[in-house]
Amino acid sequence: MEFIDEELLNYSEEHTSPEGALLRKVNRQTHLNVLKPRMLSGHLQGRLLAMFSHMIRPNQILEIGTYTGYSAICLAEGMQAGGILHTIDKNEELEDVVRGYFAEAGLQDSIKYYIGHALDIIPTIEATFDLVFIDADKINNALYYDMVIDKVNQGGYIIADNVLWSGKVLEKYRKKLDEDTAALLAFNKKVHDDERVENILMPIRDGLLVARKL
């Protein structure tokens, strides 16, 4: 993800509203204790997700890829009273820690946390969504998109993370075209060509693709 100028990134974070105390704790503990902490949404992206949520005021949110719960807590900030955030992750080893963070945030009754494979779980969720955040294995992004698009309400949003893939969507940033990069290139084109949505690819952190269902 280090393809954006570090000084510009630091300047952007310095001029972004700060994380709350719990999010700082999740951020720090993830970096201290969990493998691949770069998977965390982090300060800048987290504040953007929270702002999207405040603008959309979703009643039902689906998150594919919980990790340590940072992004879920951010997405829940703008959710309507009585709303539900459904979040899916296959890493059961983090479950107790993540549930603890959700409880500390007062979200234990607002978040439905599923452990297992998203491809199996998504069809079992009987809800339509105002906001979907895709941040799991990149090889399945297109499958996740196809599975959720009909579950998204008209005017709802799908946000996909890591769509610039450390810059490797451009040839100059990669040594070879690996499977994940090829999948992301195909996914980005798929969404861009989908007449059911309007989209914008934002070069924030590792890239966010935002699509609004028409």
Secondary structure topology:
Layout (H helix, E strand, L loop, with lengths): L5 H9 L6 H13 L8 H15 L3 E5 L5 H7 L7 E6 L5 H10 L6 E5 L2 H4 L7 E6 L6 H8 L3 E10 L17 H15 L3 E6 L5 E6 L1
Parallel strand pairs: 1-2, 1-4, 2-3, 4-5
Antiparallel strand pairs: 5-7, 6-7
Helix pairs in contact: 3-4
Structure, explained:
The protein has helices spanning 6-14, 21-33, 42-56, 70-76, 95-104, 118-121, 141-148, 179-193; strands spanning 60-64, 84-89, 111-115, 129-134, 152-161, 197-202, 208-213. The protein is built from eight helices and seven strands; from the N terminus they run H-H-H-E-H-E-H-E-H-E-H-E-H-E-E. It has one domain (6-213): 3-Layer(aba) Sandwich (Rossmann fold). It has a seven-stranded mixed beta sheet, sandwiched between helices.
